[in-house]
Amino acid sequence: MVRELWGPGRMPKGMITRLLRHTTYMNYGVPPEYEGARSVLEPSRVSMEEGGRIYVRECAACHGKDGLGDGDAESALSPSPALLAYMIRRPISVDEYLLWTISDGGGQFQSQMPGFKDKLTRDEIWKVIAFMRAGFPLVGPEGKPLPPSTGK
User: DSSP letter string over 86-137?
Assistant: First the structure.
């Protein structure tokens, strides 16, 4: 999308919705229960794989297996799901921001992203974040890593 087309009153609804959370964070930070939150998980293959299983079960239907927003449900959502593979590499993707986003979801920003704080433990959310930060390693339908490609 060309930025010149955005102008006053012309920004697409999906972009406005995405920017609401970012702007809120930049101006006000996160809600108090997430202030200063940092993952306490040691980076490990086990926690990343557990995060992958949770991601496949809870997130991939919308965000896609590679975090590219191309899951089976994505076309029914407006705005479309966030491109997590891109977002996870942005400077805004600090621990407290990601924990807040996944825990509370997007209802307050007119997004259909559900909140997971009543469905997943905080440790499970940190495992999903670890999986995303690992680059969405390929996982099978049950969240198990796929064997390396043989190039055939």
Answer: HHTTSTT--HHHHHHHHHH-SGGGT--PPP-TTTS-HHHHHHHHHHHHTT--
Q: Residue 105 has which token pair?
A: 């979801």
Look at residues 89, 72, 91 and name the one whose alpha carbon lies nearest to residue 80. 72
- Has this prediction a pTM greater than 0.70? yes
Angle at 109 between CA 68 and CA 63, to 5 degrees: 15
- CB within 8 A of 74, min separation 6: which ones? 62, 63, 64, 80, 81
pLDDT winner (highest mean) among 67-76, 105-114, 138-147: 105-114
Can you read off the two tokens belonging to residue 126? 């940190």
With CA atoms as reference, report the closest residue to 110 among 78, 147, 151, 72. 78
- Is residue 52 scored above 80 in pLDDT? yes
